[in-house]
Amino acid sequence: MVKGKTLYGMCAKGDVAKYVLLSGDPWRVDVLAKNLESPRHIAFSREFNTYTGMYKGVEITVSSTGMGAPTAAIALEELYECGMEVAVRMGTNMVLDKSNFGKYMIPIGAMRNESTSTQYAPLSYPAIADAELVGYLTEGVREHGYEAVNGLICTMDAFYRDFRESRFSNECGIDIEGRIDRLRAYGIDSLDMESSAILTIARLMGVKAALIGLATVNANLQEFMYGEEKASNEAILCKVALDGLVKYAKAHEQGVHT
Residue 11 domain-assigned? Predict the structure, then answer.
């Protein structure tokens, strides 16, 4: 452990802006950082890749959480320790309705089907996004000419038990399609592995948090973006997410609230 630095992300107070954009994929953070003015590389430690720089006059930190709720919780804890006040998770989602493929998912809340957040609060505690952040992110998406869906996301832990069939899940008789159908009956629009933990923990911390995801996969990987198409769309996602966060930041700095 380096004195003055967080244990895993290797950040210190002064390294992290109050506005933070989170990505599961550490390599996507490098794409995000290309949008910043004079980005300062704080650290790339384990799955945590972090830069801080300016975007349209607002200081923003972009950092990765890794895959899954446990490492997302570690990222939140350490970034909060270093000064984070507003957090937006951006990434890719699996959607349950194929008509939403290629759209931007900006949920108002999440179903807590992961276990990490239960270490912070009972399951009866809601995982809800900050309404103002949801509004500004949605506005930003639509200004870019894309469609946004404000619904519900479900966060789960086991990719090859909950999201996609595998040799082992088939040998175990796991009915992936049946699990997905049950989630559709609850009105769930999309799935991921981090969001409900982020919303739950952030709210307990007093951190304003929301989610923005690009729907790159249909249920059970029946359709998915890949290669250059996925890379180009993820680059657009980075820009859209930054613009939405900056809209929120500038409104608050000017004392304008929706």
Answer: no
